[in-house]
Amino acid sequence: MRDEDTMESKPRRSNNETSAEPGWRIGVLYSRTGVTAATESEHFFGTVLAIEEINAAGGIDGRLLDPVAYDPKSDPDEYRRLATRMVQEDDVTVLFGCSTSSSRKAVLPVIERHNALLWYCSIYEGFEYSPNVIYTGAVPNQNSMQLAAYLLRNHGRRLFLVGADYIYPRESNRIMRDMVEQHGGEIVEEVYLPSDADVDDLVGVVRQIKALEPDVVFSTLIGRGARAFYRLYREHDIDPERIPIASLTMTEGETRMIGAQLCGSHIVSASYLNTLDLAGNRRFLESWRGRFGDQPASMWSEMAYNQVHLFALALARTKSLDAAKLVDAVHGVEFDSPEGLLRIDPENNHAILTPRIAVCQPDGSFDIVWESPKPVKPDPYLISYGFSEFWLDGGRA
Amino acid sequence: MTAWARGLFEDLRTLRVLVIHPPGEDRNVLEEQLRRLGCPLRAIWPFPSQVPGDADAVFFHVGPEARSTGHWSAADTSATLIALSDYENPTALKMLLDTQAHGVITKPYRSTGILSTLVLARAAARYQQRLQNKVVKLEEAIKARRQIERAVRVLVEAHRLTENEAYEQIRTRATELRATVGEISAMVIDAHEAMEKLGLSKPAKIAR
Q1: N or C, fewer C-beta in 10 Å, chain B?
Q2: Alpha-helix residue ranges (DSSP H) falling in chain A
Q3: Which range of residues forms the domain containing residue B176?
């Protein structure tokens, strides 16, 4: 029945054709091509790893996970079309997919109309709740807030903001500007480029940074544009040790693509770094290397991996793919994830996470320089950030 | 972002919200979302006979009970009013209009859209309030204007002043007495009428 997508990449299909019980049908919807291909491929690999681990351990209640995967090519219309196909033709009610708010908003009506369940693992700007979505990525009170405090405390008061022109950068910059200005800092410039910015645009921004000499650059550029920006930064002789670039998205996989030696001293705020010294992370990395070799694991693969495991724990309780039952069950489970014990807040279906800040080393590893002393509850509808919770508590990780 | 725009949503965590709706699953959807927004929240039922004074925003069910408890509406309160509506037939629409609500949410309630409706309704309520204040001021100004004209005529007749001189006289006295020009004009008219009643004024040709 499937036409052009039959040839697309899929995780190894479980051999449910030969087993007595039919598998648990699930959908996997990550772009392997287009603007977000780099991060979504990492989502895909993390998802594959978790599915294979669960199936290798015998599946859930004697039945294997049975994934269907399509490539929506970073196009919101394709996300909607393929999500519709999954729920209408492939008998899917549980989907793992999307990496941006635009693709999530595109599939949301399909998910809600069919009472399906979407697991969304990317960081995003908050201000959403659907009873049909579990959000496992960080919202701004779990990454942006801490980054603003860290930069003001450790790098100075003059910030330069550069972002791709879509909702996440706009919202991240609103928060950054609010907090910096509230605490006596200054935004020296705020510029936006198209998601597929060309080199001339990027060179223009690099020249502006050179001329303005800010204390730190906060970049919410993504994809190829972001990678080109980090390279141009060094080509134009800006010293990252003096003026680092801080980001919420620039993680291990992409710094390797840029060239790790070019990324030393740049900063990232994330709940997972692959240098985390935790038993759960050691297990994950061993499994990851066994499957994907030398390719670095990052928060993109890890969050995707985590949410499949959370789903499996919930499914073990419900023994049913009913969305409402799964949501109910996931409120009661706990996964010993690579970044520590992971839980979902029943109030808003977002993950309770531990914020961390790390500095990239020339060898590509991230040195964790700060870690929240305790996990932070998600507050996806937080609008203004008060003074009391602003300053970082806890010391070096 | 302008202070005006921020003012409409930055105080959500202190905004006192009242929900007037029968208990049940529908109300739960609303209450849970308002809690996610972080609003201090109170839910009541049955319908109160008066708008509670301690609410900044009121979400209220539009139904027969709203009609039978009297017609409290936007004019009686400074709170932002958001109607919760079951039906969209002409009878229901008429009831909705009668409430003069600043916004409406229609069943089935969903978490999405509640924040947008609340913010837009607050903007509409504030704008309406500003217009209302302006109308009151303009009405006062028009009333004062009539009195000033009359007082000027009184002074022109009684003291053989030009219109400009008469007005200048009123204005100067207003400044000295720290009163408005309208108030001084009222004094002039009152005094003139009192003298007339006592038969002490010159035969007045000033009509009215």
Answers
A1: C
A2: 37-56, 76-89, 101-113, 144-155, 167-182, 199-212, 223-235, 252-258, 279-292, 299-318, 323-330
A3: 140-197
Give the count of domains, chain B: 2
Residue A381 contacts residue B13 (beta carbons within 8 Å): no
pTM: 0.84
Query: A 95-134 residues with CB below 8 A of B?
Result: 127-131
Q: Is B161 part of a structural domain of the chain?
A: yes
Q: Is residue B181 located within the same domain as residue B79?
A: no
Task: Determine whether the interchain pair A130/B111 forms a contact, defined as Cβ–Cβ distance below 8 Å.
Answer: yes
**Is B208 inside a domain boundary?**
no
Comparing A82-91, A145-154, B89-98, B128-137, which segment has the lowest mean pLDDT? B89-98
- What CATH number did the domain enclosing B178 receive? 1.10.10.10
Give the model confidence (pLDDT) of A156-191 as tens digits: 999 999 999 988 999 999 989 998 998 889 999 999
Residue B202 domain-assigned (yes or no) = no
Q: CB-based contact (8 Å) between A381 and chain B?
A: yes
CATH number of the domain bearing residue B99? 3.40.50.2300
Both tokens assigned to A58: 């015998």
Q: How far is B4 from chain A (nearest CA, A)?
A: 15
The answer, yes or no, to whether residue A394 has pLDDT greater than 80, is no
Contacts of B111 in chain A (CB under 8 A): 129-131
- Tokens 């006192």 found at: B16
From A129's Cα to the closest Cα of chain B, the distance in A is 6
pLDDT at B68 (0 to 100):
62
- Asked if A174's CB is within 8 angstroms of B1's CB, the reply is yes
- Cα separation, A229 vs A232, whole angstroms: 5
Residues B87 and B161 in one domain: no
One domain for residues B166 and B116: no
CB of A379 within 8 Å of a chain B CB? The answer is yes
Residue A145's alpha-carbon distances to A26, A244, A297, A353, B198, in angstroms, are: 35, 18, 25, 13, 78
State the pLDDT confidence band at B202, using cuts at 50, 70 and 90.
low
Cβ–Cβ below 8 Å for A381 and B1: no
- The answer, yes or no, to whether residue A293 has pLDDT greater than 50, is yes
pLDDT of the residue at B67: 66
Interface check A347 vs B, CB under 8 A: yes
Q: Is the ipTM of this complex over 0.90?
A: no
Under an 8 A CB cutoff, do A383 and B112 touch?
Answer: no
Q: Do A348 and B36 touch (CB under 8 A)?
A: yes
- 């009333």: which residue's tokens? B143
Is the pLDDT confidence value at A13 over 70? no
Tell whether B147 and B124 lie within a shared domain: no
**At residue A318, what are phi and psi to the nearest 5 degrees?**
-85, -30
Residue in chain B lying closest to A178 (CA): B1
More confident residue, B161 or A96: A96
Interface of B with A (CB under 8 A): 1, 9-10, 12-13, 32-33, 35-38, 111-112, 115
Query: Which amino acid makes up residue A133?
Result: V
- The answer to the question of residue B204 being in a domain is no
Using an 8 Å Cβ cutoff, are A111 and A327 in contact? no
